[in-house]
Write a structure and sequence with these properties.
Length: 318
Amino acid sequence: MSQMWVERHRPRTVADIKGQKAVVDRLKAYAEKKTFPHLLLAGPPGTGKTTAALALTRDVFGENYRMNLLEMNASDERKLESIRTKVKGFARTAPVPGTSFKVIFLDEADALTSDAQGALRRIMEQYSETCRFILSCNYSSKIIEAIQSRCAVFRFRPLANEQVNDMIVSVAASESLDLDDDAAKAIVHVSLGDLRKAITALQVAASMSNKITRNLIYETTATAPPEELHGYLLACREDGFQPARRRLKSLLDKYGLAGTDMVNQLHRGLGDVTFLDESQKLSVTETMAETDFRMVEGGGESLQLDAMTASLCKLLKK
């Protein structure tokens, strides 16, 4: 459902894009002039970078825009040879009659190797009159300065909670799903401003039942509800090591969490915990950071989580 819905309802023009007003206002000016410089679209996943690139190209060239567009996923074709052959071959050919330039869209351009980016820099300079490049990436710092200086940079922000909620409600209505208000809030909580992740969460839940509930969302997205995480911290403070350890194990088993997932979700929900003061939250954060580092470095997950629980019991004991 999600991919089909996304393709069916993908914004057809720049003006249709929601949630990125600062970006859209600048892109509208390019669409009206029917031309634009090389562009670099940077920001978190699921915030509309690919949609913006395709909508702008459609605005400039019309419904047959794909005749003048080469779309590549740079993470699949990230080597120097791909840039020298496929990209350069398309750039050196003449644009479609009636147009003054063509477009090469490189998605996930931050996956390109340094050599490939060096070759791309030269191609962007050599064919700038008849070819425009649109690069999208999650981390603009991984794009070499020589390319960044040749592009107009657009920064995409995570979508606001209200915007994600409105879109999820719209998708559920169009797919005839019974979506609870609490379930929509849970999807917003899980998605972290990533609309693609939010729609996928809705799709997974819809495959289980037409009635979408809060519990179903958390169970199908491998995410523990905030109150469960708060209960674990409360057990560390009130009950001691063994009860807190059992509480943690039941959380991992029920929601299918990996150790690093558990620590990350606990860290994210720490700000909403009301029964800890600021100094306690600082100490808890340091303990979680050390545990996460040890697990990433290869430490045994079970032992590290037990060590974290023991440390939290010492820190939070009344």
